Every structure is written in structure tokens, then in C-alpha cells.
């Protein structure tokens, strides 16, 4: 579904991504791990063009989606993104957070958008919060709403950048459960996370990034049990 070819990204003289080649197949859950500063967020942000790559390309179902000719809005609709810090619209109710994108960008009617929103709120277990404002919700609830908001655009792929890193420990499980449900229903997902148990249980494939490159990849269980590279071993010895 997504192919990344020779992707490079520099900020000034600082090269952050140093030639990434990767694929995400339809229905696959790809988990990305690696030390802080290794380029994980930049990689995800290049996929949906929150950042413009310096060189190389990203292809979605064979079509190049990077570069000047590509339609930025189409790409953003195809790829939902969930951030560490939720980024909900604080002045809008939960229902409005979920319906504004579909109404403004996909031109759905209010009724159509609300029907989708209510269905998603039920799926993330928060149908009773439709009229609440983000400020009144717990971190775990906010993140479940952020996931529902991204899903409301009916994307083909979901990108998650450390979705549980800002949460109190007791709220991590409820968010991972929603993500696991999504995975079981066949959603294509790329997830940056430090939750190694989740990576092992839900991930189809694991990418270990360090210093702007993918150092190692494989089935999560295999990489955890028998990392091939010294850098992977060292990282895993600190986090497992
Ligand atoms: P990770 O998500 O793995 O922690 P990032 O992709 O956030 O890593 O960052 C990789 C490197 O790129 C870091 O050294 C970071 O300081 C740098 N970087 C990220 N975003 C920017 C930016 N907008 N401008 C300049 N440097 C950046
Ligand atoms: Mg990051």
C-alpha cells in the first residue's frame, strides 16, 4: 500500500533521515521503535507530508504522493494521524471534533457526519461523551477521541506517533485496546511506540531505527529474541 524509496530529510545541514526504504502492506501493522532523536517522528511525518522529504519518494498504491504535482489534501485524507498530545480542538464538543473534518473536507452533510461520528464513539467506548468538551476528559479518553476523529475521515492507513507516551500509566491500556481492535479489523497501521508488549502482540513487522536509518526489521518476536545488530541489542537491553 505504501512504498518508501530512498527517503532523505535534512533540516539545514542536519540530515535526519539518511535513506529510508520501507513498505507497508495492506492490512499490516508496522511498529517502529528506536531511541529518541533517531528520526521516527520525521519518518511518519514524511509519509503524510506534514514534512516534505528532501529527496526520495513515498508511493501510495503505486502513485507518487511526494513532490510538487501530488495532491496534498488527498494524501492527508488517506492517512489518519494520531499524536502524542492528542491535538483535539479545545473549543469544540467531542461530536464537533469528529464531524468538522468530514463536513468541511469531505463535504458530508451534518446528518451523515454525525452518524459516522456516533458509530465511532461507540467503537471507542465513549458514546456518552458526544457533548463533552476535551478539557473535561481524561488523557486516555482524549486519545480515544483523537483516534475516532482520525477514523471519521475514513482513511486507508492510520499513523500513530507515540500515542500513549503522554498518558498516565493506568490509561495506557484503554488506548492500546482501541488500537488492537483496529488492527484486528484489518486497518493498515504504522505505529511509533515504546510499548514493547503491544509491539510484540499486535505488530506484524517491527522496524528498528537509529541515526536516521532502519537498522533492522523483522517479525517483532524474532527481533526481540534474537536481534542481529549490536545497536538493536543495546537498545532492547535498555527497554525490555
Ligand atoms: P524521534 O521521533 O525518533 O525522537 P525526530 O524525528 O523527532 O526523532 O527527530 C530526529 C532529529 O531531527 C532530532 O535530532 C531532532 O532534533 C531533529 N528535528 C526534528 N524536527 C526538526 C525540525 N522541525 N527542525 C530541526 N530539527 C528537527
Ligand atoms: Mg518522536
UniProtKB/TrEMBL annotation:
Keywords assigned by UniProt, alphabetized: Amino-acid transport, ATP-binding, Cell membrane, Membrane, Nucleotide-binding, Transport
A matching Pfam family: ABC_tran
This protein's record includes keyword Phosphoprotein: no
Domain ABC transporter: start-end pairs: 2-236
Topology versus the membrane: Peripheral membrane protein
Main location: membrane
Keyword Membrane attributed: yes
Descriptive protein name: ATP-binding cassette domain-containing protein
The species this protein was found in: Paenibacillus glycinis
